[in-house]
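queue> pop job 88
queue> type: inverse folding (structure -> sequence)
queue> payload:
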């Protein structure tokens, strides 16, 4: 039996598994033919799948799979697969496309070129060999002659049968080995650069990505790609009196830009719009949010609504992607005895983008346009996709510029449909998005809806947040209170103040310096109705579906403040609630936010008492009439650089420099609080890598550098036995006090105690 994998999977079985994925792909992403302008996309992909592993019949490669002594010498089986695809009597252009895809489905052309020996090098090496061993393992023509005719015939018969079953009738030619050009010299060594605007660009990129997807999913023995069904949208019928802006969204076939206040059903508007689009064309759906906390919350919410599934870990149609995904799954599944195995299985499925609706950060989409490994598969998933951008105002100028460039490509080249919704976007940014999207329906909540949503009484408090807590505490009686700070340090200080005063009441502190496991518990407490005080940083601002009664917040730009306000009296079920905005903030606040913008915001808020949602757009446009000179330059420069980067994104190539640029965008560094060192080592050495990682805390680079300068960061090493071999690992340890209530306290030193030591 010819093998395809070291686990004993037969070659024919693997090809059958890949063909199953190929058929599923045509249903899950039906726009691939239209986007690639290849009417026979499915046919070409089927042929590529059938031939992609043909080269594995080589007897020396079979020895590798059987773990026997061999003379394979690190060759590439794809090279031989391409050679045998020469038997196809195809149009030369289509044959070339298929052969390139087969050749590059594991290694880039750059990698193949590096390992390839030309004729002169081969002859020189053969001359140095013993006479009786004159066979050189990298002599392709000699190798082709040595492959068993019986094996070749068996695989060709299998392929011919599958071609006929798939309605493909292609005659087979006789191969003359000496007339075959080496595939690496034929394709990889030639200049291979496509204009990003050309038809050939997407044809090569998408067919390669689809081939990789079939191979990866086939290897994982994935039998189906789930599709959203009509029943997943039935929850929309539970909305008895939808707003007019919701109905308008549900009846629109174009891209949508929805401007509506928090609590006015924007999520339902977007999901109803998706339903409308899927009636005419299925495809992947991406729901894009800025923060992990809001993604986790939205995942649970959509699982309840769309899948009628209270246990999010059992979701079969809704996935998610963000940097702390494994911690989220760990918190969901760790209560099960077989938790780790299920976590890795779920993590694998989420990372493979199996699910038809994915909730993601924008960076999980942007990374494909930086050429991060596997980008071709990511772009295949975007063909004809529906993308929902929630809270698009939350991004800085650089990220917004990158999103604009990406949207232009997605709409014009990938035939994507876009739904953007926000409550707090200045007019000049709205117009930028409309220019980018082209045919777009702008939908606004009706004036009477806006006027009816009088939720907040605005008070500008002349002092800082600590003073406000002390002075305003009599107003807390019987209320659920949110206190929002701009820094972790200030949030920790306010939490201690509240805890001292209200020790008998449930209080929750939420910020970015908790371990992964504690963070998940905190996010649960945020939604707990018995929580009386919620103190936190900007993580509270966006998309958390919570409803408190009173707020004290540090000053910030207007759009950020409006988002914070949206966590109070969210559903307009109470009398207008008090919001106190502090006019005095710590000096570090000017580093986080523009001093000028924050000052403008306070001036606007001083003129407001009872906040009417119909006032918000005018308030935003007063604070943000247009880009500042600095912002405009940053926006334009970023667009130019990202457009240039995108034009260099080529199929069949590596993009390591672009990939490095992508990862430079993230400023968090993971450290281990000193108190967890021994627990981290124990979990890691026992194979619970996710559990060990859940003990880590993220620090901004500036905080990390400060701790490093003061020698509060150390690199600790430990060793353990793995497969009877000693393995050494290292971890960055922060010598700062930590507890599950406060998080990492970078002002208090704590040494590592009782180190287990190195083997």
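queue> result:
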């Amino acid at each position: 039996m010819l093998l395809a994998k070291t686990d004993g999977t037969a070659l024919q079985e693997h090809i059958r598994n890949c063909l199953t994925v190929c058929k599923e792909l045509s249903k899950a992403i039906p726009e691939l033919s239209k986007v690639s302008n290849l009417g026979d996309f499915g046919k070409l992909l089927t042929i590529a799948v059938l031939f992609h592993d043909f080269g594995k019949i080589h007897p020396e490669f079979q020895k590798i799979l059987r773990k026997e002594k061999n003379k394979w010498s690190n060759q590439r089986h794809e090279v031989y697969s391409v050679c045998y695809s020469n038997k196809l009597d195809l149009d030369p252009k289509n044959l070339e496309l298929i052969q390139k895809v087969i050749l590059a489905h594991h290694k880039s052309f750059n990698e193949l070129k590096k390992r390839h020996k030309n004729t002169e090098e081969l002859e020189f090496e053969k001359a140095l060999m013993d006479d009786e061993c004159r066979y050189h393992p990298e002599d392709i023509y000699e190798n082709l002659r040595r492959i068993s005719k019986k094996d070749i015939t068996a695989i060709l018969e299998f392929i011919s049968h599958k071609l006929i079953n798939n309605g493909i009738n292609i005659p087979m030619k006789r191969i003359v080995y000496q007339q075959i050009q080496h595939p690496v010299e034929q394709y990889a060594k030639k200049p291979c650069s496509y204009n990003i605007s050309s038809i050939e660009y997407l044809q090569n990129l998408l067919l390669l990505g689809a081939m990789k997807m079939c191979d990866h999913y086939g290897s994982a023995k994935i039998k189906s790609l789930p599709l959203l069904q009509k029943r997943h949208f039935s929850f929309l019928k539970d909305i008895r009196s939808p707003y007019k802006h919701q109905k308008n969204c549900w009846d629109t076939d174009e891209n949508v830009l929805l401007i509506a206040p928090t609590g006015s059903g924007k999520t339902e508007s977007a999901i109803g719009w998706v339903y409308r689009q899927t009636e005419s064309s299925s495809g992947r759906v991406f729901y894009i949010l800025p923060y992990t906390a809001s993604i986790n919350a939205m995942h649970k919410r959509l699982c309840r609504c769309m899948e009628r599934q209270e246990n999010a870990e059992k979701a079969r149609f809704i996935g998610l992607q963000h940097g702390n995904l494994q911690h989220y799954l760990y918190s969901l599944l760790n209560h099960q005895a077989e938790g780790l195995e299920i976590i890795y299985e779920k993590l694998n499925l989420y990372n493979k983008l199996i699910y038809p609706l994915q909730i993601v950060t924008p960076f999980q989409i942007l990374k494909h346009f930086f050429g991060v490994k596997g980008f071709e598969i990511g772009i295949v998933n975007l063909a004809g996709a529906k993308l929902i951008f929630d809270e698009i105002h939350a991004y800085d100028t650089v990220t917004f510029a990158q999103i604009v460039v990406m949207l232009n490509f997605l709409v014009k080249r990938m035939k994507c449909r876009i739904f953007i919704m926000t409550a707090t976007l200045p007019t000049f940014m709205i117009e930028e998005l409309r220019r980018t999207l082209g045919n777009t329906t702008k939908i606004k909540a009706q004036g009477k809806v806006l006027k009816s949503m009088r939720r907040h009484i605005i008070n500008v408090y002349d002092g800082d947040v600590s003073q406000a807590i002390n002075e305003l505490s009599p107003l807390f009686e019987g209320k659920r209170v949110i206190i929002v700070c701009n820094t972790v340090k200030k949030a920790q200080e306010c939490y201690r103040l509240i805890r001292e005063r209200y020790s008998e009441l449930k209080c929750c502190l939420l910020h970015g310096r908790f371990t992964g496991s504690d963070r998940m518990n905190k996010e649960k407490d945020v939604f707990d109705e018995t929580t009386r005080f919620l103190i936190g940083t900007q993580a509270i601002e966006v998309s958390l579906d919570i409803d408190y009664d009173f707020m004290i917040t540090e000053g910030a730009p207007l759009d950020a403040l409006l988002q914070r306000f949206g966590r109070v009296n969210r559903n307009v079920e109470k009398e207008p609630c008090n919001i106190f905005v502090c006019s005095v903030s710590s000096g570090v606040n000017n580093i986080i936010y523009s001093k000028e913008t924050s000052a403008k915001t306070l001036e606007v808020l001083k003129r407001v008492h009872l906040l009417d949602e119909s006032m918000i757009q005018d308030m935003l446009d007063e604070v943000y009439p247009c880009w500042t000179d600095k912002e405009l330059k940053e926006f334009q420069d970023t667009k130019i650089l990202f457009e240039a980067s995108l034009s260099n994104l080529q199929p069949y190539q590596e993009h390591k420099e672009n990939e490095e640029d992508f990862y430079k965008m993230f400023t968090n560094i993971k450290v281990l609080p000193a108190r967890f060192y021994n627990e981290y080592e124990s979990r890691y050495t026992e194979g619970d890598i996710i559990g060990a990682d859940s003990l880590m805390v993220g620090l901004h680079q500036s905080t990390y550098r400060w701790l490093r300068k003061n020698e509060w960061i150390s690199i600790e090493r430990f060793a353990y036995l793995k497969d009877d071999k000693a393995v050494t690992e290292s971890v960055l340890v922060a010598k700062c006090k930590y507890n599950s209530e406060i998080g990492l306290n970078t002002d208090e030193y704590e040494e590592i105690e009782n180190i287990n030591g190195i083997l």
